[in-house]
Amino acid sequence: MIRKLVTIPDQRLRQKSLRITRVTPKVEKLAQDMIDTTLDWDHDSEYGAALAAIQIGETIKLTVVRNNFEDGKDQTFLTFINPEIVQKSRDFVVDVEGCLSVPGYYAKIPRANKIKVKALTLEGEEVRLTLEGFPARVFQHEIDHMHGKLFIDIIKDASTLLKLDDDGQLISVDEIPQEIIDAQNHHQH
Protein backbone atom coordinates (compact mmCIF):
# COMPACT_ATOMS: atom_id res chain seq x y z
CA MET A 1 0.00 0.00 0.00
CA ILE A 2 1.31 3.41 -0.94
CA ARG A 3 1.63 5.66 2.11
CA LYS A 4 1.81 9.44 2.31
CA LEU A 5 5.38 10.73 2.56
CA VAL A 6 6.14 12.90 5.57
CA THR A 7 7.94 16.06 4.42
CA ILE A 8 9.39 19.16 6.05
CA PRO A 9 8.27 20.95 8.20
CA ASP A 10 6.40 17.97 9.73
CA GLN A 11 7.80 17.49 13.24
CA ARG A 12 7.49 13.72 13.08
CA LEU A 13 10.74 13.80 11.09
CA ARG A 14 12.45 15.05 14.27
CA GLN A 15 11.38 12.12 16.43
CA LYS A 16 13.80 9.40 17.41
CA SER A 17 12.77 5.98 16.21
CA LEU A 18 12.41 3.02 18.53
CA ARG A 19 14.15 -0.34 18.25
CA ILE A 20 12.07 -3.16 16.88
CA THR A 21 11.99 -5.96 19.43
CA ARG A 22 10.15 -8.53 17.34
CA VAL A 23 9.53 -8.96 13.62
CA THR A 24 5.78 -9.29 13.26
CA PRO A 25 3.52 -9.45 10.20
CA LYS A 26 2.83 -5.75 10.86
CA VAL A 27 6.55 -4.94 10.44
CA GLU A 28 6.70 -7.04 7.26
CA LYS A 29 3.65 -5.22 5.88
CA LEU A 30 5.16 -1.86 6.77
CA ALA A 31 8.38 -2.76 4.91
CA GLN A 32 6.33 -3.61 1.82
CA ASP A 33 4.39 -0.33 2.16
CA MET A 34 7.72 1.52 2.29
CA ILE A 35 8.89 -0.18 -0.90
CA ASP A 36 5.58 0.58 -2.63
CA THR A 37 5.78 4.22 -1.50
CA THR A 38 9.35 4.61 -2.76
CA LEU A 39 8.51 3.08 -6.14
CA ASP A 40 5.47 5.32 -6.41
CA TRP A 41 7.72 8.34 -5.84
CA ASP A 42 10.13 7.37 -8.64
CA HIS A 43 9.80 9.68 -11.61
CA ASP A 44 11.70 10.79 -14.70
CA SER A 45 15.39 10.28 -14.00
CA GLU A 46 14.99 10.37 -10.21
CA TYR A 47 14.45 7.32 -8.08
CA GLY A 48 14.42 6.77 -4.36
CA ALA A 49 17.48 4.94 -3.08
CA ALA A 50 15.97 4.13 0.31
CA LEU A 51 13.29 5.07 2.80
CA ALA A 52 13.20 5.11 6.60
CA ALA A 53 9.95 4.27 8.40
CA ILE A 54 9.75 7.74 9.95
CA GLN A 55 9.33 9.11 6.43
CA ILE A 56 5.87 7.56 6.37
CA GLY A 57 5.22 8.51 9.99
CA GLU A 58 6.24 5.28 11.74
CA THR A 59 8.76 5.81 14.55
CA ILE A 60 10.55 2.48 14.36
CA LYS A 61 14.06 1.61 13.20
CA LEU A 62 13.24 0.13 9.84
CA THR A 63 14.61 1.00 6.42
CA VAL A 64 14.28 -0.35 2.91
CA VAL A 65 17.23 0.11 0.57
CA ARG A 66 17.19 -0.31 -3.18
CA ASN A 67 19.10 -3.41 -4.21
CA ASN A 68 20.72 -1.84 -7.27
CA PHE A 69 21.64 1.86 -7.23
CA GLU A 70 22.88 1.76 -10.82
CA ASP A 71 19.60 0.70 -12.41
CA GLY A 72 16.47 2.61 -11.43
CA LYS A 73 14.35 0.04 -13.26
CA ASP A 74 15.41 -2.62 -10.76
CA GLN A 75 12.55 -2.52 -8.27
CA THR A 76 13.99 -4.89 -5.67
CA PHE A 77 14.82 -3.73 -2.17
CA LEU A 78 16.51 -5.09 0.93
CA THR A 79 14.99 -4.48 4.35
CA PHE A 80 17.05 -3.70 7.44
CA ILE A 81 15.82 -3.63 11.03
CA ASN A 82 17.57 -1.66 13.79
CA PRO A 83 20.53 -0.72 11.58
CA GLU A 84 23.43 0.89 13.38
CA ILE A 85 26.85 2.06 12.35
CA VAL A 86 29.51 0.20 14.31
CA GLN A 87 32.53 1.74 12.59
CA LYS A 88 33.22 4.76 10.35
CA SER A 89 36.28 5.65 8.34
CA ARG A 90 37.97 8.95 9.04
CA ASP A 91 38.03 9.91 5.38
CA PHE A 92 35.01 11.88 4.32
CA VAL A 93 33.66 12.36 0.83
CA VAL A 94 31.45 15.24 -0.28
CA ASP A 95 28.70 14.32 -2.72
CA VAL A 96 25.22 15.50 -3.69
CA GLU A 97 22.42 14.11 -1.58
CA GLY A 98 18.64 14.49 -1.59
CA CYS A 99 15.71 13.19 0.41
CA LEU A 100 12.11 12.25 -0.33
CA SER A 101 11.16 14.23 2.80
CA VAL A 102 12.87 17.41 1.54
CA PRO A 103 11.37 17.63 -1.94
CA GLY A 104 13.17 19.63 -4.59
CA TYR A 105 16.37 20.30 -2.67
CA TYR A 106 19.76 18.65 -2.73
CA ALA A 107 23.03 19.50 -1.03
CA LYS A 108 26.70 18.70 -1.08
CA ILE A 109 27.08 16.71 2.12
CA PRO A 110 30.24 15.24 3.66
CA ARG A 111 29.87 11.62 4.78
CA ALA A 112 32.29 8.94 5.92
CA ASN A 113 33.49 7.08 2.85
CA LYS A 114 33.40 3.65 4.51
CA ILE A 115 31.21 2.30 7.28
CA LYS A 116 30.39 -0.99 8.93
CA VAL A 117 26.74 -1.57 9.75
CA LYS A 118 24.96 -4.24 11.72
CA ALA A 119 21.25 -4.89 11.37
CA LEU A 120 18.63 -7.59 11.30
CA THR A 121 16.85 -8.90 8.24
CA LEU A 122 13.11 -9.46 8.08
CA GLU A 123 13.88 -13.10 8.91
CA GLY A 124 15.52 -11.98 12.16
CA GLU A 125 19.04 -12.85 10.99
CA GLU A 126 21.85 -10.52 12.03
CA VAL A 127 23.84 -9.15 9.11
CA ARG A 128 27.03 -7.12 9.11
CA LEU A 129 27.80 -5.01 6.07
CA THR A 130 30.96 -3.22 5.01
CA LEU A 131 29.92 -0.36 2.75
CA GLU A 132 31.85 2.20 0.73
CA GLY A 133 30.90 5.20 -1.38
CA PHE A 134 27.23 5.69 -2.30
CA PRO A 135 25.88 2.68 -0.33
CA ALA A 136 27.70 4.00 2.77
CA ARG A 137 26.15 7.43 2.14
CA VAL A 138 22.65 5.93 1.84
CA PHE A 139 22.91 4.06 5.16
CA GLN A 140 24.28 7.11 6.99
CA HIS A 141 21.37 9.17 5.62
CA GLU A 142 18.75 6.59 6.65
CA ILE A 143 20.25 6.03 10.11
CA ASP A 144 20.29 9.82 10.62
CA HIS A 145 16.52 9.75 10.01
CA MET A 146 16.18 7.30 12.90
CA HIS A 147 17.82 9.91 15.15
CA GLY A 148 15.54 12.74 13.97
CA LYS A 149 18.24 14.25 11.78
CA LEU A 150 17.91 15.44 8.18
CA PHE A 151 20.66 16.11 5.63
CA ILE A 152 19.71 19.80 5.62
CA ASP A 153 20.87 20.02 9.25
CA ILE A 154 24.42 19.70 7.97
CA ILE A 155 24.09 22.68 5.60
CA LYS A 156 25.93 25.74 6.91
CA ASP A 157 25.63 28.10 3.95
CA ALA A 158 23.87 28.41 0.61
CA SER A 159 26.95 27.39 -1.39
CA THR A 160 26.27 23.71 -0.64
CA LEU A 161 22.52 23.82 -1.36
CA LEU A 162 21.09 22.95 -4.76
CA LYS A 163 17.58 23.02 -6.18
CA LEU A 164 15.93 21.32 -9.12
CA ASP A 165 14.90 23.73 -11.86
CA ASP A 166 11.91 23.25 -14.14
CA ASP A 167 14.04 21.17 -16.55
CA GLY A 168 15.12 18.79 -13.79
CA GLN A 169 18.64 20.18 -13.58
CA LEU A 170 20.38 20.96 -10.31
CA ILE A 171 21.08 24.66 -9.88
CA SER A 172 22.71 26.68 -7.12
CA VAL A 173 20.62 28.84 -4.83
CA ASP A 174 21.57 32.38 -3.80
CA GLU A 175 20.43 31.97 -0.22
CA ILE A 176 19.01 29.24 1.96
CA PRO A 177 15.19 29.34 1.53
CA GLN A 178 13.12 30.11 4.62
CA GLU A 179 11.46 26.66 4.59
CA ILE A 180 14.89 25.04 4.95
CA ILE A 181 15.94 27.48 7.71
CA ASP A 182 12.67 26.80 9.54
CA ALA A 183 13.24 23.04 9.30
CA GLN A 184 16.82 23.46 10.57
CA ASN A 185 15.59 25.59 13.48
CA HIS A 186 13.05 22.94 14.49
CA HIS A 187 15.93 20.49 14.89
CA GLN A 188 17.87 22.83 17.18
CA HIS A 189 15.00 23.32 19.64
Strand pairing plus helix content: what structural class? alpha+beta
Helix content: 10-25%
What's the count of strands?
9
- Average residue-wise pLDDT: 93
| Model regions low in confidence, pLDDT < 50 over at least 5 residues | none
Order of helices and strands, N to C? HEEEEEEEHEEH
- Principal-axis shape: globular
N→C terminal distance: 34 Å
How are the SSEs ordered, and which strands pair?
Blueprint: H1 25-41, E1 50-52, E2 62-66, E3 77-88, E4 92-98, E5 105-112, E6 114-120, E7 126-132, H2 134-146, E8 161-164, E9 170-172, H3 178-188
Antiparallel strand pairs: 1-2, 2-3, 3-6, 4-5, 5-8, 6-7, 8-9
What features would you describe in this structure?
The structure is a single chain. With 189 residues, the chain is α+β, with helices and mostly antiparallel strands. It is built from three helices and nine strands, in the order H-E-E-E-E-E-E-E-H-E-E-H. The chain has helices at 25-41, 134-146, 178-188, and strands at residues 50-52, 62-66, 77-88, 92-98, 105-112, 114-120, 126-132, 161-164, 170-172. It has a five-stranded antiparallel beta sheet. Strands 4-5-8-9 form a four-stranded antiparallel beta sheet. A hairpin with a 5-residue loop joins strand 8 and strand 9 (170-172). The longest helix is centred in the first third of the chain and has 17 residues, at 25-41. The protein is globular, with a radius of gyration of 16 Å.
